[in-house]
Amino acid sequence: MQVIFTKGSKRYGQLRCVRMDGSATQTQMPEQGIAPHDMIHYVVEKRLHIQGAFFAQVRAGADISFSLEHNEASLAVADKTLIWQTESIVESLQSLLWSADASTYAGFLYLLEQSCSNRKLALPEVSQADFEHIINEIMELTIEWQGMGEGQSLTLKF
Fold it and tell me: What pLDDT shows up at residue 114?
């Protein structure tokens, strides 16, 4: 599936996903200075091979909306625990990236433990090597994203 991030105005960009069968879905995406939330999702889900969260559901046919609009195939791959664990990982990474200490594994683990505890979830396993890879990729994408002009797109594969 192609995942297309398009830079918008200072408030909103756009996320468009084009599946292998040619069907597509899209939504507005808030601009936030760092890589967009959904771009962080992309990096996390790809690196950790998460097959039951946001992008796997979209690839299986869910349409992006405030809450995903599912079809039978996307419901079949959805995993509620993975969905919320992934959200906890993404939120923890965002918090680090907004702070001055974006590269501390210990800080990430602390935030992740807090997020998972609040959601009454088991702590997902994220190795230090995976964390470092994810942070590096997000930082590279952030630099590329920040250098783009309105209407320019970044196309990735999921």
Answer: 97
